[in-house]
Design goal:
about 150 residues, alpha+beta, endopeptidase fold (from Nostoc punctiforme), 2 domains, 4 helices, about 25% strand
């Protein structure tokens, strides 16, 4: 499972670092390629192609964190994978977002913990609604109110 370390100064960032910022309701991810430049996919929830962005425009005064992975490609390969994707489109909030992109650059696996967590919560909610409906139907089929 990835770990997160706050960036206190932009000079901490190294080429190939996976970074994220927390926005209202989601996290935005990118790959550092050096000289205060990042590569992002989608530019947030609005979509858009893989593109270069300055650290300033990426962070927008939000706290930047480095995402550390247990199994990662060498930093130069991570940055190279990101650079090779510049201009590519196909953003999908659920299947191909900025976190999928950054995680793929680092590990080779296009995964998004945000999407997994949302899908898990939706599944739990659906199960809860189903159980409640079944309980209500069971109660109704026995005459409605309990006997006293």
């Amino acid at each position: 499972m990835p770990r997160h370390r706050p960036v206190t100064h932009v000079n901490q960032l190294q080429r190939g670092d996976h970074v994220r910022v927390r926005r209202l309701g989601y996290q935005h991810h990118a790959i550092c390629v050096g000289d205060h430049q990042l590569i992002e996919f989608g530019g947030g929830v609005s979509g858009g192609p893989v593109a270069y962005v300055t650290m300033e425009n990426f962070a927008r005064n939000d706290r930047v964190e480095i995402v550390e992975h247990d199994h990662a490609f060498p930093p130069e390969l991570v940055a190279s994978r990101a650079e090779q994707q510049v201009g590519c489109a196909g953003f999908s909030l659920w299947n191909n977002n900025c976190e999928h992109f950054a995680t793929w650059c680092v590990t080779g696996l296009g995964e998004s913990r945000q999407v997994k967590n949302i899908k898990a919560a939706a599944t739990l909610a659906a199960v809860g609604v189903t159980v409640a409906a079944l309980t209500q139907n069971s109660s109704s089929s026995r005459g409605g109110s309990p006997r006293t």
